[in-house]
Structure formats: C-alpha cells, structure tokens
Design a protein that fits this description.
Helix content: 40-55%
Number of strands: 13
CATH class of the largest domain: Alpha Beta
Shape: globular
Number of helices: 16
CATH superfamily of the largest domain: Periplasmic binding protein-like II
CATH architecture of the largest domain: 3-Layer(aba) Sandwich
Order of helices and strands: HEHEHEHEEEEHHEHHHHHEEEEHHHEHH
Length: about 425
C-alpha cells in the first residue's frame, strides 16, 4: 500500500513539473539605458531603479565615457549584443548621422511642449535634451571688486571694455605683488582642443545671432567664410592669450586650468558649468559674463543641450522608454534628480528648482532671461573642431604663428570643406 502511494506521489509531482514546463513564463520587463556621463552614473542608477520599482520594470543603466571608455566605440558593440539598449545618447548632428537608422521619432510626447531644446531634423523630433550646459567668462567677484571692475558693465560688453578690465586687474596684481595670479585661465594645448576648436570657435558660429540663426554654420559646412566675423574672433582670442596664464595656455591640463580659478588665483575662466564640482572649497562668489567674440554688442553666454536621449526604434520597450523620459521631464522626482542629485540645469520650462552649484545657477539665470547664444560647434564636420582648428589655435597661442596667419589658416580650413 505504501508503495502505491509513493508511486502516485511521484506521478503527481511529474505532472506538476510537466505543467510548469509547458506554462509560458511571464517575461520580465527590462529597460536598458546606455549613456556617456560618468559623473551621473550613480545618481541616474538610483533614480532609474526607483522609477523601475514603481513601474514594475527593471531599469539597467550602462555608462561609458571619460578617459576610461570610448562611448562611440562601445555603443557599436552594444548594438551587436543580445539585448540592445532601449535608450541611448547622441551629441547633435554628428551622432544623428551615425545612428539615424536606429532612432525613433518622438510624436505627441508631453515633454516636447515643455522645452525649447529638443533635437529636431527636418521638423521631426528625435532627441530628448539630457540637460542644459553653458559657458561664458566665469568670473571671480572678489578679484573684480578689488580691482575696481564693474561686473554689471560687462553684461553687454565690447572687446575694448574687456581690455580695459584686463588692464585694471593686471595693475591690481602688480600693485599687490600677486605674481602668481592670472587675469585669464585658459588652456589651448593638445588635449584641450575642445576648449579652443569647439567652445571658443563657437563664438564665430553664433555670437550676436538669434538663437535659431544657423546661417554661419550652414555657410561653414559649405566652405564659405565670413571674414569679418573671423577677424573679430581672432582679436578676441588674441586678447585672451595676451592676458592668460602663459604656462596654462600653452601646456596646461584641464586640472591646471580649472584649479587656478578654483584656488582664487584667476579673475576669469574659459570653461563651462560642468566644472561646478571643483568649487566646494572656493571662498569667492562667481558667475558668468559674456565672451566678447564680436567687437561689440556681446550680451549673452553660450547655452545648449550637449547631448540627447534617443530611443532605439528596434526596441520592444519603446512605450516604457517614452514613459521613463516623460516622467523624468514632468515629475517632482525627475526634477529633484536633475537639479539636486545630478547637479544639472534642466532643459524643461516647468522646472522651478534652482541649482545649488554656482555656475549652473548662473547658466539658469542667463537662460531664463533669454540671453543665450546657440551651440553650433557639434554641427561642424566630424573632427573639424578638434583635429583641424585645435592645432591652429595652439600654434597661435604659443606665438608660433601671427594673428594674420591664424586667420588665414582657419580661412583655408573652412574653404577646404567645399
């Protein structure tokens, strides 16, 4: 009798096991985000994990960027993986041209009406702005006040007014034996070509123009030079290098450039608000003033979205990806993540939080005042800014070439794009 019961029990267990094997398993929902900002990896992961828990989704954040990982190379490998990213990042037209066959068009998404910085091609929206970044002439108010420089007078500024301010600051240093102080901290050597060939040169592309005016970049991409604008750019860079810390200008690294300003030993810094994490121990008030790229009438700083989240149109999770992005733009938790956790300037008009970090707060104020010149540097041909213009800047910074040669070399480079 016991044997019969045992046999019956085995048969029942086998039946249950067989039924379980035949029953389709509920497929777990997993959203993969592949992004390139190393500095926000941890806080983005925390936010994404919490969002996933609230929406019955597993969200995985993969990060590749900085010195340790080449995003452009790794993303190609990600597309060959068994599970491709559902959301990934592009940087302007360069990224669009590479990945346009992978990108889904956004249509009717709520976040689109909440920003002015969506990435569009041919009137169609493809990119969700990750954040707003900006740069101008970051200033040390303590030094400017001590030297008798009126900050308000430099908010709509000419090159002549900047030169007068630079002379005053240098005179203040000389009178107080401050030989290790600099008027301007800026780097132009190899490894820092993005400061010159991209950011400084962007003044040629957008300074003094309406935000949507792409006439100069369109001409550049067709090999057409605006010689008057180029001459004004050359005058501005000549002034910066004349009053710059020469060691930093010609051989300095990012840390050298930012460190000089963070230590309170430079009146101005040619860098963006992404440097905010360097100022925790700085004991002076700082903010942004415009670059004087044009001879006169410079009243804005350079503000744009440097990168965009895009959705892989081949993903099975497009609806979830769209929901994730819409919540990021619209929810209190999303706003808290962007401003308070990631220390970013959001690109969305509904955000009322003010960044606690000084340069990001300054970018936000300039942006809310409508005082922004566009970013067009990422719409230049791939490598043109870094590989072509950067070395031209370096030669001029080191005195190897003259201002006239600097202008002629850039003119030739642009004309070579025909």
């Amino acid at each position: 009798m016991k044997l019969k019961k045992l046999v019956l029990l085995v048969i029942m267990l086998l039946a249950v096991s067989s039924l379980a094997a035949c029953t389709p398993k509920k497929e777990a929902k997993t959203l993969i985000i592949f992004q390139n900002k190393v500095e926000i990896n941890d806080v983005l992961t925390t936010y994404a994990t919490a969002w996933g828990a609230a929406n019955d989704v597993t969200v995985t954040v993969k990060t590749c960027g900085g010195d340790a990982c080449a995003y452009g190379t790794q993303i190609l490998a990600e597309f060959q993986a068994e599970k491709q990213p559902d959301i990934f990042v592009i940087e302007g037209m360069g990224g669009y041209n590479i990945y346009k066959d992978k990108m889904m068009e956004f249509s009717g998404d709520a976040w689109i009406s909440n920003t002015d910085l969506e990435f569009k091609v041919g009137g169609k929206v493809f990119g969700f702005p990750v954040a707003v970044e900006g740069w101008g002439m970051a200033y040390n108010k303590k030094i400017l006040d001590a030297a008798g420089v009126d900050i308000e007078a430099l908010k709509d500024v000419s090159q002549a007014e900047y030169k007068e301010a630079f002379i005053k600051i240098q005179a203040y240093y000389d009178a107080n034996s401050m030989s290790d102080y600099a008027v301007v901290s800026m780097a132009a050597a190899s490894g820092m070509y993005w400061v010159t060939g991209l950011h400084n040169f962007n003044g040629y592309l957008s300074a003094g123009l309406d935000y949507a005016d792409n006439s100069v970049i369109a001409n550049l991409n067709n090999g057409i030079v605006d010689e008057a604008r180029l001459a004004q750019l050359a005058e501005w860079f000549d002034l910066l290098k004349m009053y710059g810390d020469q060691a930093i200008l010609t051989t300095g690294t990012y840390d050298d450039q930012v460190g000089k300003f963070a230590d309170g030993k430079a009146a101005f810094l040619h860098q963006g608000n992404w440097t905010d994490s360097s100022y925790a121990d700085s004991d002076f008030e700082m903010g942004y003033l415009p670059h004087a790229t044009m001879t006169e009438g410079n009243d804005s700083i350079f503000i744009g979205a440097p990168s965009y989240y895009v959705i892989n149109k081949g993903s099975k999770m497009t609806d979830v990806a769209k929901a994730f992005l819409n919540d990021l733009a619209a929810s209190a938790a999303g706003h808290d993540y962007m401003v308070n956790k990631a220390h970013m300037v959001p690109a969305f008009n509904s955000v009322t939080l003010i960044p606690s970090t000084p340069l990001s707060a300054s970018v936000m104020k300039w942006n809310q005042a409508g005082k922004a010149y566009a970013w067009w540097q990422n719409d230049m041909p791939s490598g043109f800014g870094m590989d072509t213009l950067g070395p031209i800047y370096e030669l001029f910074a080191k005195g190897t070439t003259t201002k006239a040669e600097f202008i002629a070399q850039i003119k030739t480079a642009i004309e070579g794009l025909k």
